[in-house]
């Protein structure tokens, strides 16, 4: 089946999957005319553009709800027959955190579109090139001996392997029982932030002492990094994300999709054998060159 991907116009070359014929449509979610053109001939839509974790900035959070509304209108006008929206655990219009409020509003726009959508509220995902484990690996590598963590580091996460999440998304499109449903997804284990960092340090060979810091101070540091670096590995939204537990039932994936998700410790080989301390400045340089054209 032909695949068409919608990408924001950018000076950087897109990292498209190899071995798969992929059509590319260039338009932002605020470009209504471009969205309508991109939807011509499309039967099913997977909406993945919600800002996630560390790279979620105030700018793209503010545009998430508007973008979902525009996408919903374009999909309905084009006669799209099925859709899936990847949202976040904890999405709620009453949430204290902007990213979770925006995700909840986006869900509403898609549910009201007339297109049969499923909403998958996923825990933080991880895999090669992610914004979760690779960002933590970079931050750990450049931290001198001590790595600051918010509070006591006991916030619970439920990381889900990206391949497992991709299967859930694809299978949702073919499951009529999930039309109109909101499904929460997470990995097979609840891990504290300390435990996640322990798995990452083990995979990267990095040794750091974890130092509890009050979240407001870390938020201030993340705010500074967002403004000082072209591609910050940490944002204020990430500190907000760690303010409370982000978990669901441990059998959420197996119950709905009959799939046993992978344990995190078995899927971190992509972190091994790389100089993550050097990776951080390399990414800043690539982003800076992209901005300059």
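Sequence proposed for the structure above (293 residues):
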């Amino acid at each position: 089946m032909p695949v068409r991907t919608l990408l924001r116009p950018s000076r950087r070359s897109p990292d498209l999957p190899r071995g798969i014929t992929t059509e590319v449509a260039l338009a932002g979610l605020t470009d209504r005319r471009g969205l309508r053109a991109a939807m011509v001939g499309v039967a099913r839509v997977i909406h993945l553009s919600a800002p996630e974790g560390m790279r979620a900035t105030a700018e793209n959070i503010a545009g998430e709800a508007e973008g979902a509304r525009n996408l919903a209108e374009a999909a309905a006008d084009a006669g799209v027959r099925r859709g899936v929206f990847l949202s976040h655990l904890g999405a709620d219009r009453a949430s204290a955190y902007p990213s979770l409020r925006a995700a909840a509003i986006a869900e509403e726009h898609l549910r009201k579109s007339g297109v049969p959508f499923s909403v998958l509220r996923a825990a933080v995902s991880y895999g090669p090139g992610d914004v979760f484990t690779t960002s933590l690996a970079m931050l750990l590598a450049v931290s001198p001996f001590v790595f600051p963590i918010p509070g006591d580091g006991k916030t619970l996460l439920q990381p889900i392997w990206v391949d497992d999440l991709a299967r859930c998304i694809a299978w949702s499109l073919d499951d009529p029982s999930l039309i109109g449903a909101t499904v929460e997804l997470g990995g097979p284990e609840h891990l504290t932030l300390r435990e996640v960092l322990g798995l990452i340090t083990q995979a990267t060979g990095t040794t750091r002492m974890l130092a509890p810091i009050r979240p407001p101070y870390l938020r201030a540091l993340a705010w500074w990094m967002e403004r000082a670096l072209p591609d910050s590995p940490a944002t204020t939204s990430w500190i907000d994300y760690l303010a409370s537990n982000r978990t669901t039932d441990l059998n959420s994936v197996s119950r709905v999709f009959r799939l046993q998700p992978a344990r995190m410790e078995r899927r971190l080989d992509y972190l091994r054998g790389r100089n993550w301390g050097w990776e951080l400045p390399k990414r800043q340089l690539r982003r800076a060159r992209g901005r300059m054209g």
